[in-house]
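Retry 2 of 3 after timeout on previous attempt. Resubmitting structure tokens to design endpoint.
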């Protein structure tokens, strides 16, 4: 499973949590009926529930599976895990800011935007979840080489989201001028919800898309061709695509609840590595619940294979992505100091006999004791 092969104590945390025992922003989060609270379980810090958000995307499979298999609920005891799904990072940040979301799985660019625009007051990145799983898929009749992308219409999920920033940066590297806000220029950037992008491709209203899985594989199934896998643009082929964030207020008030969610996330990633076929099926079943439809195997399998699941937030690549957003004109000199607090994650990893992860000197400064 790529980034997870370094684990030193693979069974410890999974065994702990496996012992016997979608709605959008503005809607009510729904209870997880698949994970009943165990008899005799206690609430953590007396908290009734914790609100967890994620996307119905395979790049958020840690959250999908953690929900489906009951990892989060097991770790939280009698504190109820409540879930909400989102279509894009900016809306998840809005929910976090509004207090309707406590912990979320989101991409790096929305986390960067939310943190910098709030002056560093609204969130912390507390863990990693996934790397990779992003591709530029094009109409092979119109685009055969990267140079052919010039003058074409390319979809990204949303203005300022992670894939939007990546495509704008790549286009700039080709020497093409594009206005980031309007998407107009030598390449036209069409901001399109991942749900409708395959239909837009099918109707020929776009010529390609820079999108995460499974949207990329859906377009391939319609006759598209993978022109570029974003992995090839990063040293070692790794870059952050999904992080875990928490409201700073919630982290300060309920660190034991946050630690429990992180423990469940680490255990889920280990379970994904140990049971790849079952994990793929579990993610797909939760997609069916959240998005209303499971993925057919010819889309699910290639999409799954392109994603690496990791507890490491790959902080150095977040710094690079922030620089890309600044060059694209979407941010002005972002100050990311303090965006990470990996204290609880490293505590969980240490307990499991695993190595600590690094915050690339972007961690919150802990007060002297």
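Retry 2 succeeded. Sequence:
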């Amino acid at each position: 499973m790529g980034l997870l092969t370094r684990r030193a104590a693979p069974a410890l945390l999974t065994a702990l949590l496996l012992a016997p025992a979608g709605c959008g922003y503005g809607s009510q989060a729904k209870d997880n009926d698949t994970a009943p609270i165990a008899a005799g379980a206690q609430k953590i810090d007396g908290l009734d529930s914790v609100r967890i958000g994620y996307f119905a995307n395979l790049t958020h499979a840690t959250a999908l599976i953690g929900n489906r298999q009951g990892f989060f609920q097991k770790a939280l005891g009698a504190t109820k895990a409540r879930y909400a799904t989102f279509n894009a990072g900016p809306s998840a940040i809005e929910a976090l800011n509004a207090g309707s979301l406590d912990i979320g799985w989101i991409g790096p660019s929305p986390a960067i935007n939310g943190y910098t625009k709030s002056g560093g007051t609204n969130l912390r990145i507390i863990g990693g979840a996934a790397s990779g799983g992003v591709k530029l898929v094009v109409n092979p009749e119109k685009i055969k080489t990267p140079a052919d992308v010039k003058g074409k219409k390319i979809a990204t999920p949303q203005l300022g989201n992670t894939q939007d920033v990546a495509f704008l940066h790549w286009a700039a590297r080709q020497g093409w001028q594009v206005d980031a806000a309007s998407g107009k220029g030598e390449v036209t950037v069409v901001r399109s919800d991942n749900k409708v992008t395959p239909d837009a491709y099918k109707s020929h209203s776009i010529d390609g898309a820079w999108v995460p899985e499974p949207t990329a594989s859906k377009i391939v199934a319609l006759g598209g061709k993978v022109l570029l896998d974003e992995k090839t643009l990063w040293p070692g082929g790794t870059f952050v695509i999904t992080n875990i964030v928490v409201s700073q207020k919630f982290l300060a008030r309920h660190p034991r609840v946050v630690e429990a969610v992180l423990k469940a996330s680490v255990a889920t990633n280990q379970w994904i590595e140990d049971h790849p076929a079952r994990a793929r099926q579990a993610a797909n079943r939760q997609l069916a619940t959240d998005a209303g439809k499971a993925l057919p195997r010819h889309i699910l399998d290639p999409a799954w294979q392109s994603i690496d699941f990791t507890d490491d937030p790959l902080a150095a690549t977040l710094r690079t992505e922030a620089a890309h957003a600044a060059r694209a004109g979407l941010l002005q000199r972002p100050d990311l100091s303090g965006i990470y607090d990996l204290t609880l994650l490293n505590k969980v990893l240490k307990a499991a006999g695993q190595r600590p992860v690094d915050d690339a000197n972007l961690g919150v400064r802990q007060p002297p004791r």
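Attempt log closed. Residues 1-33 have pLDDT under 50 and may be disordered.
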